[in-house]
Amino acid sequence: MTELAFFVDLAVTGTVLGLDHTSTMAEVEAVFELTHASAYPNSLVTDAGLVEFGWQRWHGGDTWTATYFGAQAHRLGLLADKEQVESPLVARYGDFPARVHVEDLLAATTAVGHPLRQVPDPDENRVAYWSPVSDLHVLAVAPDRAGEPDPPGTVLKMLGPQPWWPWHRNMGRELEFAGYARQLLATGRSAWLDAHDPVDEPPEVRRDWWGCLTNMVQRKAKVHEPVVALHREAAERAVCTVAEAALAEIAVLVRAHGKGVPAGSTDEATTRWLAHVPPGGDLRSDRVLRNQIHAVGQGLTHLTDPALADAMRPWLDLRPALLADGRAPRVPAH
Length: 334
What we know:
By secondary structure, the protein is of the alpha+beta class. It has two domains: 2-164, no CATH class; 167-321, no CATH class. The chain is 43% helix and 13% strand. The protein contains 13 helices and eight strands. An eight-stranded antiparallel sheet has the order 1-2-3-4-8-7-6-5, covered by helices on one side. Helix 6 (174-186) packs across helix 8, helix 9 (225-236) runs antiparallel to helix 10 and helix 10 packs antiparallel against helix 11 (267-275). The protein starts with a helix and ends in a 16-residue tail after the last helix. The mean pLDDT is 93.
């Protein structure tokens, strides 16, 4: 597995040498020399060769926030041949292969106890996999596709975070959920949910139903308040945790502010998150906690209570220490 160690660590921990989408640009630049950049007014793509980060900001002068990161594995042939894989990666992992076969990656991630899960991809020439522990998305050439620039099974990209998409389970039901959203927005929310909430379905099916409903309400609502209320109701009905609902609310408010809509403070949602911080201690829980700290931090500029900003500082300081090693735990040999 030596040649695959980097790719296994990336897939399982969702980090590159401890860096990820929660990292600041300064943290990334302290490790990698970002040799290429594609700049737009409020978006930026930087790469050091194999590793790539995408960034965005609402307005010029705002701090850049990473939207995705990972490995553009289709570049491996050229990089490995010319010995241009980033030196910090070579220092830890040694030589890199010219390509990675998806079956080898699947076997290696399964061997360390964190198998990838196949997910739909709209391109029939591609196969896609998703890591439940890190939300990394892997895209490869379909095994039965010859005539591609890369051989069948070649891993092309490993990028994240791409959380589980509830529409995977509800593909083709967009018009149905659009109707649900219009009904909910036109009537009493709680009464409509009492009649339609699929409480008898398995938890994962119910959660995806709510995810699609919330997504569609956000598309259809002209103001942010119904979306915030729906996230809160999801927590009240135990569809998600209080912390998850608070994060979703902060994201709605930050997005509204970014579009110039006066959406109020993030004080209430931040207070709820601080009262329901998820525990850390293992790979998955540390991954969740790091993601959540980052998400709450996005609303920091919209806090009005200085005491809440003070309460957040220890968590913000903890964030880079979680998964800082960037290595997937290895399963002891028997």
